[in-house]
Write a structure and sequence with these properties.
Elements (H helix, E strand, L loop, with lengths): L8 H10 L1 H14 L6 E11 L15 E4 L16 H8 L2 E7 L2 E10 L1 E3 L5 E6 L4 E9 L8 H16 L3 E7 L3 H9 L3 E11 L2 E5 L7 E4 L6 E6 L9
Parallel strand pairs: 6-12, 7-8
Antiparallel strand pairs: 1-8, 1-9, 2-3, 3-4, 4-7, 5-6, 9-10, 10-11
Length: 241
């Protein structure tokens, strides 16, 4: 096999950043989307991170920020561009959202929900075990102009405090294998990867495959079909990739 040092520099960077298997999937998705723009061929890592037993305190760079729990119908949520009905559905499920503000300006947000989550954008229902001490975090975003601030750290600090009060000891989430920057950010918070799923969607056909979680294979040609993914939080936390 040829050494990666002999590969073209662009290809070598892609392999270093994504890994060979993920680079192949990304290339395949891009090729398929030239004829089917809505197609999805994507690997998603499932990561777990412990909820710290003690608060970390507010970073010095975050003193000018205010982080508070988001409420249904508040004007700041009008600046969050999502599929219509997504935000109300989160509150209906019992999800908790936090926003980082500079004055009245919403700079970023973070959501989590204990026990189970029904994804609004992808046809997946996530069930967590044990439900009482495990949460699912999602839609973590900081606006580009605020990414050099402490908004990210402050959001996690507030979320961790709310999780501790609720008795949550671990929070899980999914991260696209095509988003190594997000994976790196989670790892800096202590997250580990302990499994993955492969999502396929092409026209009416959709499938979810996983060696890590049950059911291992689900597929359907029905547009109303929703996959069910049962995820047991790792005890103790260890990485298997």
């Amino acid at each position: 096999m040829a050494s990666t040092s002999r590969l073209p520099s662009r290809l070598r960077r892609v392999l270093d950043e994504y890994g060979a298997a993920n680079a192949v999937l990304l290339t395949l998705q891009q090729l398929v989307r030239t004829v089917a723009p809505t197609a999805i061929i994507e690997r998603r890592y499932i990561v777990a991170q412990p909820v710290p037993a003690q608060p970390a305190g507010i970073p010095r760079r975050g003193q000018h920020l205010t982080v508070r729990r988001l409420s249904p119908g508040e004007p700041a949520l009008n600046t969050v561009i999502r599929v219509p009905g997504d935000i109300p559905d989160r509150f209906a499920q019992g999800a908790v959202g936090f926003g980082a503000f500079r004055g009245d300006e919403l700079l970023g947000w973070l959501w989590f929900i204990p026990g189970a989550y029904r994804d609004f954008n992808d046809p997946i229902n996530v069930e967590l075990t044990p439900p009482a001490t495990t949460a699912w975090d999602f839609d973590i975003y900081v606006r580009p102009e605020a990414r050099l601030t402490a908004a990210f750290a402050c959001l996690w600090g507030a979320a961790f405090e709310a999780m501790r009060v609720a008795g949550v000891t671990q929070t899980l989430s999914e991260i696209s294998a095509f988003n190594p920057a997000s994976l790196g950010a989670h790892r800096r918070l202590g997250a580990i990867v302990f499994g993955s799923v492969l999502m396929l969607r092409l026209g009416r056909f959709q499938a979810l495959c996983s060696r890590s979680f049950r059911p291992h294979l689900q597929w359907s040609l029905q547009q109303t079909f929703r996959s069910r993914l049962v995820i047991a939080a790792p005890r103790p936390i260890t990485s298997n990739i």
